[in-house]
């Protein structure tokens, strides 16, 4: 075929073409315009497809193109050839490993005498798509978090452009739609200053932050309409590089009002001390105002000392617990008596933080009602002003939020289950058609059916992973506990995965231990963990390589090791390896698609069976994944 190629072009054209092939950074393929046969290609194309030049020369272009749209693309381009310029489209090329690699192809015309050719430049889109998907997901998560917070958030870059802000911020400052659309930090801050009592001080603070971009600030802002805000700003970094600043604004008007009322009540009390004739009336008035303030809140409020004993509670908290005030206070109830044991450690940590800083970060807990039912809550603690031994707590009922989370999880479960049944039928039907159940089909139809069958298999895997994840999150995943012959189960797992590995030209090598290996766990879940680790090791192994499988006895447990000789795990990805939807994409690492849920599910399974899971990896030499199970 090399001789035919050398005589296909004139010497001058061949010289120019070879120069282009050698100096173009991207993959470049030359095909005949009539029958789309590969006539020439550069080394970059061979590396992208994982094939040699001799294997590809003379092959039909359809042997490497596997996207459905390619069939229509070439029909259209043949009818309307780009005699000048380029035609750009996305496609998929099939590598030697059988992986559909997303690419962007740029097609231009080339003529040698009376003969026409197509020059195809191809760029691997795997990394670009992954980056775009990550950015979309992160942006969505960030926006959801921003909208969920009770604080106003404004994020700006180093050039004075607003990167993001939530509705809470725009509402707090009364920003107009035109002002929001401009995304101009200077214009927004100018509007903010028009709302402040002391605009000059805030302007000076902004100037200082501009001159010292890595500094932090916290300012108490009094507004002309009587409101009070706390504005906190911090520098924003991206991989240790300063990229901007984030402003967080919290409305403390209610707190300030309560503080002023408490100060007023204290002033009245002090005046009463000086004037004994008015002391009793002043104390009663102060107590009445404070009680109205506390009981009018929508949040449960209570007071306690450092020993955990409750000394005060408002009506909201009493209704939440289903008890009377005298029952709570006369029995000298401890806060820990009202919370489930699982949350005692979080409360103790909050008390320690309270002693050190005067306040504690809110934490989730679970209260026990008088009727035995449980109420999920968010608890915040703050040291009572003027006292080192008393604190005040705020309790927010999370029942509605938890119910909403449960409804969402059930919705995902229902949708996934409803997808599974029709998807199984579709996949089965496509499999029968692919293997000739409907007789001989034309190559084009056969190719379309193969693409559809592969996509249905991918979708089926995604639905199964989503179902497992939903069961784990909702606590509906059942785990058996029985004695397992780990050697036999390992052999069965290798046998179940061997066809998949063989398709990748990879083999498994099992080093059986010299003694019997029995563990405690759920055989089905252990088999799922095996399937994930064995298939991953095969995917990332080079051709003709062995995946080593070992069983090692370590004290009170057995350790299972699966080791490959692949490219290893990049350093920047290792801390996310067991996260949901985690995939180390890239032309050298992502050899086959997946949901990114497998390792996260495997980790949950192993931990549910009282085991541990981890990995060791060296870039360029391979990875070793391991998990342990209790020995029987």
What would your notes on this structure say?
- A hairpin with a 5-residue loop joins strand 13 and strand 14 (374-383).
- By secondary structure, the protein is α+β, with helices and mostly antiparallel strands.
- The strands form five sheets. It has a five-stranded antiparallel sheet.
- Residues 1-7 and 586-591 have low confidence and may be disordered.
- It has 21 helices and 22 strands.
- CA(first)-CA(last) distance: 64 Å
Give helix % range. Answer: 40-55%
| Derived structural class | alpha+beta
Radius of gyration: 34 Å
Mean pLDDT: 81
For the sheet with most strands, the description reads: 5 strands, antiparallel
As a percent range, the share of strand residues is 25-35%
**Which residue ranges are poorly predicted, with pLDDT under 50 across at least 5 consecutive positions?**
1-7, 586-591
Q: Tell me the number of helical segments per DSSP (H or I, 4 or more residues long).
A: 21
Cross-sheet strand order for the largest sheet = 2-1-5-4-3
Number of strands: 22
